[in-house]
Amino acid sequence: MPTPTLLLIDIQNDYFPGGKWTLDGMEAAASNAAKLLSAARRAGTPVIHVRHEFPSEEAPFFIAGSEGAKIYEQVAPANDESVVLKHHVNAFRETNLKDVLDEIGTERLTICGAMSHMCVDAGTRAAADLGYDLTVVHDACATRDQEFGGTFVPAAQVHASFMAALGFAYANVVSTNDYLA
């Protein structure tokens, strides 16, 4: 069975305390992502980092060239690791991500990052549509509180709902410890 490629989505400074769009549990998610990254590097597993920048300086976060748009130091790319720049929620939309995956012969992807309800969800669903065998490491992902129709939805429930949906039809959803075991 081919080795999975590790895909780290949007683990960027603006999502951490002090950033422009702080996520609930982002520090713990990044710590788990760092464990996945370390294991991938030791095993010689391909690693791809996805970094989001909004094309407008009026964006609420991830402004091009800003400190907040940089990849978080704990999971910073090594020189031989690809970094895909995106401007949309879906990491495959108008990027070279599929080309990079094809070049290394990827059939299986392990996904982690942020936000659970946006870019992780969109990237996972797009990857499934492209035929990849997928694993999402749920405790290496983070999100934030949401509101819908006057109803407050805590981040933990947002995260659980999206992981449940991805696990139902798109990916094997596991913890960091189970993945590394």
UniProtKB/TrEMBL annotation:
The gene is sttH. Its EC number is 3.5.2.19. It holds the Pfam family Isochorismatase. The keyword Hydrolase applies. Residues 5-148 form the Isochorismatase-like domain. This is Streptothricin hydrolase. GO terms for molecular function: hydrolase activity. It is an enzyme of class 3 (hydrolase). InterPro entries: Isochorismatase-like_dom, Isochorismatase-like_hydrls, Isochorismatase-like_sf. The keyword Hydrolase applies. CDD domains: nicotinamidase_related. Keywords: Hydrolase. The lineage of its organism: Bacteria, Pseudomonadati, Planctomycetota, Planctomycetia, Planctomycetales.
